[in-house]
Amino acid sequence: MNRWRVRLLAFAGLCSVGTLMYLTRADRTPEADPEGLHTDDRVRRLAPYDIAAATVATWSPLDIPPLGVVPAGATRPRREVFEALGLDEHRVRDLRASPSFRVTILRWQVSPSYDVVCMTADNSPASSAVPLDDPERSVYGIRFVSRSEGAHHIW
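The structure assignment produced for this chain is given below.
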């Protein structure tokens, strides 16, 4: 009977520690996750440039250097891009699509202050058959832009 009690106490202790660790994770604090989005700090760490300064200095997100997650001249499914960046598909919102000739610019709010911008081609039946919000849609030209500083952008 003593072994049973020792094991039960050890199990209860581990459960308590696990629960405490889960509840105190940085991405679960109210200031880090106010609306189910990623944190601003997390997005800033992903960008090799000052997102707000780059956004202010340009007329279009296309003038901001793309992230290296998709090599120049290549495409990747958006699911792979988000995974490579450590972004959770369920923690972005407000998809906006801006078609321009044979390209559509896709823009999601990724944190309280930043958007993630992707480009996708519309010049083939294969790409046009995949919905714009489908994680398997091929994208390229991934950038982060400031939501507050990007109001002057041409699209």
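Interim note for the steering committee: The CA atoms of residues 87 and 121 lie 22 Å apart. Confidence is low (pLDDT under 50) at residues 26-32.
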